[in-house]
Design brief:
Aminopeptidase, 387 residues, 6-stranded mixed beta sheet, globular, 2 domains, alpha/beta, single chain, 19% strand
Amino acid sequence: MEYRTKLPKKLLIIRNVIAVIFMFSIFLFQHVFAQKTGDSPKLKTVVIDAGHGGKDPGCHGGYAHEKDVCLAMALKLGKLIKESYPNITVKYTRETDVFVELIERANIANRADADLFICIHANAGSTVAYGTETYVLGLHRTEAQQKVMERENSIISLEEDKGAKYKDFDLTPDAMIAIQLQQNVNLNNAIKFAGFLQKEFKTIGRYDRGVKQAGFLVLYKTAMPSVLIETGFLTNPNEEGFIGKTEGQDKMANAMFKAFINYKNDFEGKTSTQHETVIQSKDTSKTNTKDSSIIELPSKDVFFTVQIVSSAEKISSDSPRFKGLSVYEYFQDNLYKYYNGVFVKDLEGAKKHKITMQEKGFSSAFVIAFSNGERISIEKAIKLAEK
């Protein structure tokens, strides 16, 4: 497909300068107006896009297909957001195995007046390529970035018009620079969110391939901060064994959710802390703890447990969300988090309990670990438990 610059270079430069002045004026007006009115922005709507689908399977490994992996993580992320922030509207470009055109994915986000657009994909490369990377709209700077862009854009050949609708999408360097200038505020926020994502992926042990730019058609027409996440390489058997299975998908969705919290707090001007602490409920100071199902930290030793619920608001001990279970509570990333079951130095016991919790209806349940009153990584807990 050929993309042509339709304006002489001098006119493009003039247009770009005018765009910068115009966008800066709008940004300045909005900033001053917000200060005068005392209003702060609110993140109200998120659109989550599971890449590929239907007749477009995307890339694949030995057993996993990109369209299935993307959908699983998208639904998990959306559920985490909806459960913790009931006032935020979460929309999906697809919730089943169906084909959705690239431009329609952007249209869904625009019609929803979304504040954030999250595209979830899986990567392809050599059998030894590994790690996560997050893209925003822009100019690719390496051949590898160009190949990722071309692969994700190539699905337009499966659309009814074979991609004819994109013939006016100008992806030349001058045009891309102009778009970046026009979408300056959105691009800056997209880069910020992408940074939060990569930081959280690194926290769970993923190799950080960085925040990058490329001309993805699915991001071209969106009118809000938009990112495209390459969650890992299905062509690498080890990576496929992670993102191709439920446990890895849970970890990735949780990492995306933590990044979302950090971005939301930053976007709304709230302070956010990464410090993890375990707290007691207000009822634990009483001598008779039988009146409360939320009790204090059960052990100072290394133990594994299963997190079942997280919420932006504190949940009452008798809430039906706990399904009658006794739970423990801790506070992290401005969220109240609740877990059930204590397995001192027993990871396998916690894994079996996770399955039990999922069967009880806590589909997002996952194993976590504590030591001396602080949550720690599973890897560190295993090493400590072996001592």
